[in-house]
From TrEMBL, chain A:
<dbReference type="InterPro" id="IPR029062">
    <property type="entry name" value="Class_I_gatase-like"/>
</dbReference>
<protein>
    <recommendedName>
        <fullName>ThuA-like domain-containing protein</fullName>
    </recommendedName>
</protein>
UniProtKB/TrEMBL annotation, chain B:
<protein>
    <recommendedName>
        <fullName>ThuA-like domain-containing protein</fullName>
    </recommendedName>
</protein>
<dbReference type="InterPro" id="IPR029062">
    <property type="entry name" value="Class_I_gatase-like"/>
</dbReference>
Amino acid sequence: MTRLAVLDAGTYYHHRTIYEPRYHDFFDEIIYTRDLPEVDLSAFDTLLVSCRTDPSVLRPRREQIADFLASGKTVVAMGSTGHPDWLPDVKWTDTPTNFWWWKEGGEIGLKIAAPDHPLFTHLTLADVTWHYHGYFQVPDGAQSLVDVGEFGSIFYEDTVSTPGRLLITSLDPMYHHGSFFMPATTRFLDGFLPYLKGIGAGLAKRTSVP
Amino acid sequence: MASCLFLQPIKGAGNDLPDVGDYVPDIDVVGHYDLETADLSRYPALCLPAHLDQRFFGSLTSKIEQFLNGGGTLVFNGHVAWPMLPEFQPFVPLNRFSLEDLQIHRLTDHPVFEGVATEELTYRRGVAGFYARGFNPPPEGAVNLHGVGPDRLPCDWVYERPSGGRIFMHAGNDLWMYVGSSDTTARIAPQLCAWASGKGPQQ
């Protein structure tokens, strides 16, 4: 099974997401972000960079993360982490966030871009739909998983920019799950963490707590 | 001397947090991890964002207690998760989130909330639940300011420490997120700064 390490930036919402029983057992290692320089990442297959981790802490670790990717490993970078500052080939466009589309009319405009991707045995469009803070231009040869209108992607997989695999998203599920807000973000984590661990969708559903 | 020192939030890309300095003059701002070396004796009040590295802040307990013992005011927003100060206890979430459960009730009048309608704390653009979804249990002797839900669980409180200083607690998003709003919640940030700095009404 995939050995999954997760970054904890010390926030209350990371605490709820990472340490409370609902998801705790998915993580083989919890790394406080400021301890990252002392951690040997070679023991892990996947590094999950939690949403809203401060880019000022990640920027000096760019080389360590590049080395991890160079060894064929996976980096998952969630939203509001300043991706372009510390990852290669990330092209980001910041947009004002529409928190209110669901109440005040209009559509958020998200669509699944790769329905056959294994991620979508774990997640539906509704599970990735709350709001987004901007979008990415997907590098040539990489695969968008969730598009926003005709603008770009809010979630893509890149196996071409490095010898490893990048999963890049603008979604910030830990912040909202950890704030007891927005049920879609909890459903997202219910599906996404088993996917990262390589656990089948059926098991994921059975282990979900209502 | 500036009225309050605001700690910058942990934050990545995205512009979903307002800049309080655009609305409240006379504040200073310090980078998140620069708090470790900041000279707090220059400020009457320190205001913490909900996007706080609580593990980092919890490593500064003796510095913060020194600031409080000297008469400082500490404003905390968010949910308590890590050990930080002896007056703090872990956040207790509501176990239901119905409209009734999310109603905000005023328990004690306070200068920070003078003229602020609780209805406008409960609802933001017609949606309930932004203000508080639980509470950080107050220490004995704290004055509860707002309660959430039918049990009026103390989501806001103020505590005068016997050994000096004050703690102003809000178990939710930054109180200054309302700066620039078109309703009475816009009063909170300037009134908070006036009270915390000791320059405005105190009771």
